[in-house]
Amino acid sequence: MNEQIDILIKLQKIETETSRISVILKSVSEKADELDTKLSVSEQTLEAESSLLDELRKKYRSYEADVKDNIFNIEKNQENLRSIKTNEGYQLLLRTIDDLKAKNSQLEDEMIACLNQTEEAEKSIASKKDEYLQLKDQTAVEKHTIKQKSAREKKKLAKLHTEWRTFSERMDPRLLKKINMVKEMTGRSAIARVKDAICEGCNMNIPPQMYNDLQRLDKLESCPYCQRIIYWEKPSN
Ligand SMILES: [Zn+2]
């Protein structure tokens, strides 16, 4: 039984180390996702602003075309003025010309506003592009570090799996079956130490009789609360 307890202790250490590494791997992968998200948000912002800039430029070109059309019409109408015979027709055409001139003056104001907006947008895009490129470099460096760390931890994990297999081969098959069942059922560690009558897996007080049995070191029990296989470790002094 003592040998079984020793193996159990060893297995528990492997279990603890395995879950510690799993936590590291999870946080490392979350960190990588976080970096990707940050970079993609930066990229999307840049794209959104660039398409806004395209819109502004398009708007400016359309204003410009309207102004040109109006100038053409003003000149044509001014030419037509010479051939108008009636005073009424003359006044009408003059009003049309004035309207077109007013429209152009309005359009020119819009164009100035549009140019100002364009300039602002260009400045903002330039600085956002710098930020994006910086972030991209930084992300690449950080992700490289993460990848290395992840590879290191995965190697350790593989080693632990091998160790688990080696030690579990020496374990009483029935007990091992139970351990694997608890692991599968709960998705967490299946072995816990009992110290001062408390199961360290769930922090519950185990029944006194069970504690006595455990201390005699001739029996392995399951914690009645968390189902983990529990053992009592003889104080080392
Ligand atoms: Zn327990």
Folded structure, characterized:
There is one protein chain. The protein has four helices and four strands. The protein is mostly helical and 237 residues long. The chain is rod-shaped. It has two domains: 170 residues, Helix Hairpins; 66 residues, no CATH class. Helix 1 packs antiparallel against helix 2. A four-stranded mixed β-sheet has the order 2-1-4-3. Helix content is 78%, strand content 5%.
Quickly count the helices. Answer: 4
Q: What is the succession of H and E elements?
A: HHHEEHEE
Largest sheet: 4 strands, mixed
Percent strand: 5-15%
Question: Which CATH architecture of the largest domain is right?
Answer: Orthogonal Bundle
Class derived from helix and strand content: mainly alpha
Total strands:
4
Bound molecule types: zinc ion
Overall pLDDT level: 94
* Molecular shape: rod-shaped
Low-confidence stretches: none
Q: Give the radius of gyration.
A: 40 Å
Q: Remind me, CATH topology of the largest domain?
A: Helix Hairpins
Q: Quote the distance from N terminus to C terminus.
A: 21 Å
Helix content class:
over 70%
- Total domain count: 2
Give the strand order, joined by hyphens, for the main sheet: 2-1-4-3
Quaternary organisation of the protein chains: single chain
The CATH class assignment of the largest domain is: Mainly Alpha
